[in-house]
Design a protein that fits this description.
mainly alpha; 2 domains; 0% strand; single chain; 434 Repressor (Amino-terminal Domain); 6 helices
Length: 105
């Protein structure tokens, strides 16, 4: 997982813990919901000002957005994989299963 993906995951994780929807966070920082969704899925890079605004909105320090220790734990990875599989469509599940089978041989 690259840094941009880690920042996006961290923003989503904190947002969810705070009980905010993407819509609510977007409203609080004066950005579109689409922009927040792209940020969380690492499809766009955040500006430093946006990171400051997000941190203020969620009542955290900017440095907290770069605390990736939990993201790099095995427990987090397992939960993330389970979540990915749970939300995957049938074609993705088939592809993941084929990939898993190649690792098992």
């Amino acid at each position: 997982m690259n840094e941009l993906q880690q920042i996006g995951k961290k923003i989503a994780e904190i947002r969810i813990k705070r009980g905010f929807t993407q819509e609510k966070l977007a409203e609080m920082v004066n950005y579109s919901t689409n922009h927040i969704a792209k940020l969380e899925s690492a499809r766009t890079k955040p500006s430093f000002n946006l990171l400051i605004d997000i941190a203020k909105a969620m009542n955290i320090e900017v440095k907290d957005l770069f605390d990736f220790d939990e993201i790099n734990t095995i427990d987090y990875m397992k939960k993330d994989l389970v979540n990915t599989i749970s939300n995957a469509d049938n074609d993705t599940i088939k592809l993941l299963y084929k990939f898993k089978k190649t690792l098992s041989t």
